[in-house]
Specification:
Elements lengths: L1 E10 L16 E12 L2 E10 L11 E6 L4 H4 L21 H11 L7 E3 L20 H11 L3 E12 L1 H16 L9 E14 L4 E15 L9 H14 L5 E10 L7 H12 L3 H14 L2 H17 L3 H15 L2 H17 L1
Parallel strand pairs: 4-5, 4-6
Antiparallel strand pairs: 1-2, 2-3, 3-9, 6-7, 7-8
Helix pairs in contact: 2-5, 6-7, 7-8, 8-9, 9-10
Pfam families: DUF6340 (PF19867)
Protein name: Tetratricopeptide repeat protein
InterPro entries: DUF6340, TPR-like_helical_dom_sf
Length: about 350
């Protein structure tokens, strides 16, 4: 039997080279999906384990100003004035869908990090307008943009290009049909894939270094409407590409399994199961109270099992230090071998958090 629960754990990472991991940051609230499962006398719980971001921002970075350099003056000439990036009112040609990538970056950090994205009044500076990556900006210009926006670093969308494989796939279909049957195909395409290719640079005016540069290819597939892609297909893809890029600056998570005991031995059997049932409904403190009683008054084997369960409970609640203390106690005082391996896992996790 498997019962899925939802719990909210608080992770407050310790100091590292990145501002993300300094002690004075806001606590990161993470929704964790827990799955409790049991079979016989054993059980386990799943939780999401944090990983560092792909890109660690320089120390002291709190504000990022972002601009679009992917257009030329000719492309921008007929565009309407963009009042606010947060309104989503992006006007102009397909090239101007690049502004949606900027909006994706803006939205991607909202309520997810202490980092603030600043969109200046002058959203655009001009570049090549092609897939050719422009030369780096002059550091005096970078410093001026950051100063005007009261930001620490400058993120630039250096280029942006898009295409759809609708025509290409239709041609391939017709050529294949003629080769194999001698006749054109009567089958019409039902989907189109929209690709956007972007190049991003993050400029640090203090150290005069490029903190990140990334060539991105992102695509989405759309069902055709009257043999055409939806009118918002490109803008949706560009927006999603912006979200995808800024996720490089956010922590990610992977699923881990923690083994537990469902049953104790002898006279502790019934009390042990009371604790397990509390854990099944996410009453972790109630479960620990039951298991702590077994540690104090139960037989040696049951006490070791209860101590392990207490260790796992503390990790679920976000207290890695107490989890390690109880896992070590379970092995040192009661000889529970499962706790020995679990303590090693917790030690590795603590090294990650330091």
């Amino acid at each position: 039997m498997q019962i899925k629960k939802m719990a909210c754990l608080l992770f407050l990472p310790n100091q590292t080279k990145s501002k993300y991991y300094e002690k004075n940051l806001l606590v990161c609230y993470v929704i964790i999906t827990l799955s409790l499962a049991s079979c016989g006398s054993s059980g386990y719980v799943y939780l999401n384990y944090p990983q560092k971001p792909e890109v660690l921002l320089p120390d002291g970075v709190d504000d990022i100003v972002v601009v679009n350099r992917s257009l030329t003056k000719q492309e921008d000439k007929r565009a309407e004035t963009i009042e606010a990036i947060t309104t989503g009112e992006i006007a102009g040609s397909d090239k101007l869908a690049s502004d949606e990538a900027i909006k994706g970056v803006f939205d991607g950090l909202q309520n997810k990090s202490h980092i603030r994205i600043v969109v200046p009044d002058t959203l655009r500076i001009y570049g090549t307008g092609t897939r050719q990556t422009p030369d780096r900006l002059n550091w005096d210009n970078v410093a001026a943009i950051c100063k005007a926006a009261d930001a620490d670093v400058l993120l630039v969308l250096e280029n942006f290009d898009s295409n759809s494989d609708l025509i290409r796939s239709a041609v391939v279909e017709q050529v294949s049909s003629v080769i194999t049957t001698g006749k054109p195909s009567t089958r019409l395409p039902v989907q189109a894939r929209v690709d956007v290719r972007s190049y991003w640079r993050l400029y640090d005016p203090v150290t005069k270094t490029i903190s990140d540069q990334f060539q991105q290819t992102y695509f989405m597939t759309f069902n055709l409407v009257n043999s055409l892609p939806p009118v918002n297909a490109l803008s949706e893809t560009a927006y999603a590409a912006g979200l995808d890029y800024i996720n490089r600056f956010l922590p990610s998570y992977y699923r881990v399994k923690r083994d537990m005991y469902k049953k104790g031995k002898g006279r502790d059997k019934d009390r042990f199961e009371v604790g397990w049932r509390s854990a099944e409904v996410a009453k972790w403190q109630d479960a620990m109270d039951v298991w702590k009683g077994i540690v104090e008054n139960g037989n040696r084997e049951s006490a070791g099992r209860a101590a392990l369960n207490i260790a796992v409970s503390y990790e679920v609640l976000g207290d890695t230090e107490m989890a390690l203390e109880w896992a070590q106690r379970a092995y040192k005082d009661y000889g529970d071998k499962l706790s020995r391996d679990y303590a090693k896992v917790l030690l590795r996790r603590q090294k990650f958090e330091i």
